[in-house]
Amino acid sequence: MAVLLRNRRIVSDGWQSLEPRRWLQVGEDGLVPDFPAAADLIITPRLWALRREDLLERSGRLGLRLEPEDDPGAFAAELGHFALLAVNFPKFGDGRGFSIARLLRERYGYQGELRALGQVTRDHLFFMDSCGFDSFALRECEDPEEALSGFGDFSEAYQACVARPQPLFRRRLRA
To answer: Are 48 and 68 in contact (CB under 8 A)?
Structure first.
C-alpha cells in the first residue's frame, strides 16, 4: 500500500487505482475486463461510462480519477456514488486541479474524500488544503514527515477559499 497524507496525518492507502490504459482495452469478446468485486477502486470517467451498472453492483467503494481537462460538472449528479475523487496534477505548474477542487466543494457540494495526486509536493499542500483537498498522494521522492510541515508554511491567506470563505479584509473587519 502506498503512503499518503490524509487529514494532516500519514496513513496507508487502501485504494487500488486501475491503470487507465489497461482498463480501456476491449477484450476478444468485446467486453472490458473484470475488476475486483470487493476492493476500493479508483476508476476513470471512461470506465465509469462503459461499466457503470457493473461498478455499482460491487461491494467495494468507488473513487473517480479526474484529469485537468475533465469537467467536474459532468459528474455533479453522480457524485454520491463516489467515496473519493482523485484529481491528477500531471505537471508542477498545472493549476487546473485547484479549480476543480473548489468547484467540487463549493458549487457541487462534494463532501467525500478529495485527493490530490500526480506532481504533488510539499510546496503545494497549503494551497491544496485551502481549495478543499483533504488527502495527498505525494511523489515518491517527497518525505511525508517533512511534507506535513508544509501545511504550516503560511499563517494567513488573503484570498477566500474553501477553508476560509471570507477574504482577509472581511475577516479583519469582523474582528
So the answer is: no
Strand partners, 136: 5, 116
Cell numbers for 99: 479549480
Residue at grid coordinates 467536474: 72
CATH architecture of 3-174: Alpha-Beta Barrel (3.20)
Alpha helices by DSSP H, 33-161: 45-57, 96-102, 125-131, 144-148
Nearest to 135 by CA among 38, 14, 45: 14
pLDDT in tens, 31-87: 555 677 788 999 999 889 888 998 999 899 999 999 999 999 999 999 999 999 999
Instruction: Kindly report, residue by residue over 134-162, the tens digit of the pLDDT.
Output: 999 998 888 899 989 888 888 777 787 78
pTM for this entry: 0.85
Give the whole-angstrom CA distance, residue 122 versus residue 150: 5
Helix, strand, or coil (residue 72)? helix
Specify whether the CB–CB gap between 62 and 41 falls below 8 A. Answer: yes
